[in-house]
């Protein structure tokens, strides 16, 4: 390792004047370069620090090399370094895919963490390739690009149709789409963008060119030109692919077979006129019944559509909008733009995304947010907006989310809903405003993972997650509704209201009530309770509410102050519910013992969970046990009176929360009324 750091120090001193001291030259050619070749021996060392040192040496050499050095670097066997590096990257992709689909009982969160770890390794390699491509040397760039295209990109692209059915492909469809998306984000560049776009659009271009050419010649001759011209350019890309034979990992015969299978699939689909074009090529993924593939393929298309490096011939075939130059061109160009992959299928694509939102009960909030991101991106460039059928579908999805949101006001976490709205509103807005270039495609892989099972658990921590999910879904639909009708995202209606400001004035202040503090027993109700390993104790139960905060206090009579008690236990008022269910926030009277009052105590701490869940990589606990209190009263009437007193305070607290949420709900009603008038 010490020798590596010596080499690293030496490489930092390299310039064109000192370079001649580090190479052996015979005639006009470099025959050996020990600093470079010895460093490459440790290029894939398991120690990350050594890998970093080697890459620093390599990049320093590339940045100062002259003609003879580049010739040495780009001549076999030294140049095999690039093919080996790409081959290793491909192996990483295969390992990632295997890990994603590995069968077993691994915890969902552990699998998610493993995916992140494996994907980070791939991202690290891609950034290193980007650093090499950033060196201002066209020949080096061409060599690296050719190896990357032929060793990874083209094999993934040509096997993509087969990967949908896991037939003849090393990678599943979802992993392939992830790799391509990440590659375009990190490496990018005109060559990479246009090669990927060309193959992705090949089926679409082929089908349109054939359809137009077989139609009425007088009507379609001008329309077919853009497709034919673009198709000819893409054919050059496709034909170029297998030219670099044998790179050490992907031989030419293998790439030839992939290409032949790819072309066969395209030709068969184009010749069969009865086959719906939506079932072929990239559109087969967009309109797949697997909604993970829908989101992943739409995301990949959006990356390409928003790229500034897209060739002028390819851009109209995928563009979401017309440029000013295109608008001034002839009518045929305008028609060809209307027949772009988005323009030709926009209502159908929007409908597919809206179905994800409409059947929200079976999807995680993360999937809904990603579907909402895709929908908002497309609507941003769709001047016509939603047609009547799609608008009806969205309104149905919105109504469902609204009902689930209101239902949580009767749940055990209703007192936290205003804070959840404040926290999640900014998160939702941030997600919707993300550029495709900076949106992390790891979501594609995470959506494949099974959702964490509750295993029949009914504890408050799972009720908390259910409440958060309902709020997140409603915020998304609220934002999308505002965007659909007003073409902009809404500001948070609760932003001007402080956390505990509801506008409702209550007589009791519970902010200072804590364990061991003295409180008045004016509203206290005498009862008995038996704690574990302790005798039955005489206590007073005191329900108290101040604005959005409510507590149920258990107190013992103060030894010296007869009208005061000492707090011995505190429970959140909103969290009280029956032992059997968390669906309704209220205590229950025992049927067999009418003088007993059962309370389930909410023990889960969302603030502690939020601290541990930073980065969204913390799972809910598998088992969580809430507290349980059973209060005994002198008779059934006293128990019923105590039950009603607690319910009255819970109702006060719920009214305070509803008043806090009024700006949100009233804004929603105002928007609905405004749209009815339109």
Automatic annotation (TrEMBL):
Looking at the record, the residues that make up the CLEC16A/TT9 C-terminal domain are 123-238
GO annotation (BP), single: regulation of autophagosome maturation
Q: Does the keyword Glycoprotein apply?
A: no
Q: Name one GO cellular component term.
A: late endosome
Q: Which InterPro entries does the entry mention? A: CLEC16A/TT9, CLEC16A/TT9_C, CLEC16A/TT9_N
Chain ranges passing through the membrane? none
Q: Where is the FPL domain?
A: 9-62
User: Quick check: keyword Iron in the entry?
Assistant: no
Q: Name one Pfam family in it.
A: FPL
Keywords assigned by UniProt, alphabetized: Autophagy
User: Which PANTHER family does the record cross-reference, listed alphabetically?
Assistant: PROTEIN CLEC16A
Q: Which family does it belong to?
A: Belongs to the CLEC16A/gop-1 family.
**Could you identify this protein by its name?**
Protein TRANSPARENT TESTA 9-like isoform X4
- Which species does the entry assign this protein to? Arachis duranensis (Wild peanut)
């Amino acid at each position: 390792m010490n020798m590596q750091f010596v080499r690293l120090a030496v490489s930092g001193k390299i310039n064109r004047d000192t370079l001649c001291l580090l190479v052996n030259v015979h005639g006009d050619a470099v025959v050996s370069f020990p600093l470079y070749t010895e460093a490459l021996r440790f290029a894939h060392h398991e120690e990350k620090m050594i890998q970093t040192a080697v890459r620093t040496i390599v990049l320093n050499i590339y940045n100062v090399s002259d003609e003879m050095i580049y010739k040495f670097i780009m001549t076999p066997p030294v140049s095999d370094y690039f093919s080996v590096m790409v081959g290793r990257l491909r192996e990483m992709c295969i390992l990632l895919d295997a890990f994603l689909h590995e069968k077993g009982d691994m915890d969902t969160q552990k699998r998610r963490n493993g995916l992140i770890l494996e994907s980070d390794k791939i991202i690290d390699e891609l950034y290193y390739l980007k650093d090499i491509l950033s060196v201002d040397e066209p020949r080096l760039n061409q060599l690296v690009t050719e190896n990357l295209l032929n060793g990874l990109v083209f094999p993934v692209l040509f096997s993509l149709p087969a990967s949908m059915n896991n037939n003849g492909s090393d990678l599943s469809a979802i992993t392939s789409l992830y790799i391509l998306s990440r590659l375009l984000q990190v490496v990018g560049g005109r060559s990479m963008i246009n090669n990927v776009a060309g193959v992705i659009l090949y089926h679409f271009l082929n089908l349109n060119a054939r359809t137009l050419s077989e139609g009425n010649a007088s009507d379609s001759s001008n329309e077919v030109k853009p497709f034919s011209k673009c198709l000819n350019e893409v054919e050059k890309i496709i034909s170029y692919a297998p030219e670099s034979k044998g790179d050490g990992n992907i031989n030419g015969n293998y790439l030839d077979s992939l290409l032949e299978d790819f072309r066969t699939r395209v030709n068969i689909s184009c010749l069969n006129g009865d086959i719906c074009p939506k079932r072929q090529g990239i559109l087969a993924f967009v309109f797949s019944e697997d909604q993970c593939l829908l989101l992943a393929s739409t995301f990949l298309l959006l990356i390409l559509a928003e790229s500034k490096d897209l060739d002028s011939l390819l851009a109209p075939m995928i563009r979401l909008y017309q440029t000013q130059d295109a608008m001034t061109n002839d009518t045929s160009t305008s028609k060809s733009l209307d027949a772009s992959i988005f323009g030709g299928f926009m209502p159908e694509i929007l409908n597919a995304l809206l179905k994800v939102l409409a059947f929200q009960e079976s999807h995680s909030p993360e999937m809904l947010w990603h579907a909402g991101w895709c929908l908002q991106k497309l609507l941003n460039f769709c001047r016509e907006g939603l047609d009547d059928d799609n608008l009806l579908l969205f309104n149905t999805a919105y109504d469902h989310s609204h009902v689930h949101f209101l239902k949580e006001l009767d749940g055990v976490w209703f007192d936290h809903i205003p804070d959840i709205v404040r926290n999640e509103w900014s998160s939702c807005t941030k997600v919707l405003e993300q550029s495709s270039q900076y949106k992390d495609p790891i979501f594609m892989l995470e959506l494949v993972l099974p959702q964490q099972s509750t295993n029949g658990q009914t504890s408050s921590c799972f009720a908390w997650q259910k409440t958060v999910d309902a709020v997140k879904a409603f915020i998304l639909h609220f934002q999308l509704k505002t965007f659909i009708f007003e073409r902009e995202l809404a500001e948070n209606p609760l932003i001007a209201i402080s956390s505990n400001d509801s506008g409702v004035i209550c007589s009791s202040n519970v902010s200072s009530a804590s364990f061991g503090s003295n409180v008045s027993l004016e509203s206290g109700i005498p009862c008995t309770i038996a704690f574990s390993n302790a005798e039955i104790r005489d206590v007073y139960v005191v329900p108290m509410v101040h604005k959005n905060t409510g507590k149920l206090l258990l107190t013992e009579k103060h030894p010296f102050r007869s009208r005061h008690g000492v707090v011995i236990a505190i429970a959140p008022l909103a969290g009280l519910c029956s032992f059997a269910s968390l669906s309704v926030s209220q205590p229950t009277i025992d049927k067999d013992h009418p003088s007993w009052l059962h309370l389930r105590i909410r023990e889960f701490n969302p603030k502690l969970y939020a601290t541990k869940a930073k980065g969204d990589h913390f799972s809910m606990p598998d088992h969580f046990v809430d507290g349980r209190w059973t209060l005994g009263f002198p008779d059934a009437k006293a128990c019923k009176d105590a039950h009603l007193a607690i319910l009255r305070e819970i109702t006060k607290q719920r009214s305070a929360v509803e008043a806090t949420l009024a700006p949100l709900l009233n804004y929603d009603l105002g928007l609905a009324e405004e749209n009815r008038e339109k």
